[in-house]
Structures are given as structure tokens and as C-alpha cells.
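Structure in, sequence out. Go:
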């Protein structure tokens, strides 16, 4: 997808602090962390948002959560807990139109979100 910053990061045309890479997913540190641990898990395949996820993406979406779980364990935030977030569209606060899962941990989150 031209002009997509996460496609650029996935394809290593743009730098990031990559912490996980497999055939379908990558994970890297958020450039503007909102918590001591703030990692983005991103499918290599460009998907705009949850709006356009289909049954064909079912396994990918499951793996997204499993990779997040592994990263939470490696960062020792699983015990105290953490938050997984997928912002969707304008009202959801999505700013990068390439589907991604935020892992936020290392501090107590509040609810409701802002
Ligand atoms: P969204 O608002 O779409 O849910 O989340 C996008 C996230 O991507 C934001 O938390 C933002 O800080 C992060 N981000 C935007 N541009 C870059 C970048 O170039 N590199 C990295 N590592 N994170 C980015
Ligand atoms: Zn993309």
C-alpha cells in the first residue's frame, strides 16, 4: 500500500525498534509511548482497519492476540496485567490506517478511556 507508514516499517524501508517478526506479523515499539511498555503488533498484510477484516483473516486475528500474549510475558507485564487496544476509524481514535494492536502495560490503566 503506497504511503502507508506501517507498510514502510514492515518492509524495513522505515526504521523502528522491532521486537518480533514472523511470517505474518511484526511488532515494534510505539514511537510515542503512552505507558512504560507500548508495543504495536502489526500484520505484514495491509488491512485498513477492523471494518474490512473478513473470515479469511480469522487465523491472523487470532495470532495477533497470541503474539501480544507472548510479548506481554517477555516484558513481564502479564502478572500485573495490561491492556490490548485496536482503535477503529475516526471515533475510535485510529490515526494510522493499517490495522494494529496496541499492547500497553507497566502502569495502571484507567477506565473509561479518553
Ligand atoms: P492509532 O492511533 O492508529 O491506534 O495508533 C497509531 C500509533 O502508531 C500511535 O500510538 C503512534 O504513536 C504510532 N506511530 C505513528 N507513527 C509511527 C512510526 O513511524 N513509528 C512507530 N514506531 N510508531 C508510530
Ligand atoms: Zn499498510
Amino acid at each position: 500500500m503506497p504511503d502507508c507508514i506501517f507498510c514502510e516499517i514492515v518492509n524495513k524501508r522505515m526504521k523502528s525498534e522491532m521486537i518480533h517478526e514472523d511470517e505474518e506479523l511484526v511488532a515494534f515499539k510505539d514511537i510515542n509511548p503512552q505507558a512504560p511498555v507500548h508495543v504495536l503488533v502489526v500484520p505484514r498484510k495491509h488491512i485498513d482497519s477492523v471494518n474490512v477484516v473478513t473470515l479469511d483473516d480469522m487465523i491472523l486475528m487470532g495470532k495477533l492476540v497470541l503474539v501480544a500474549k507472548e510479548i506481554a510475558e517477555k516484558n513481564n507485564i502479564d502478572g500485573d496485567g495490561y491492556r490490548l487496544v485496536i482503535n477503529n476509524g475516526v471515533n475510535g481514535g485510529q490515526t494510522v490506517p493499517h490495522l494494529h494492536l496496541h499492547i500497553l502495560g507497566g502502569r495502571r490503566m484507567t477506565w473509561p478511556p479518553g
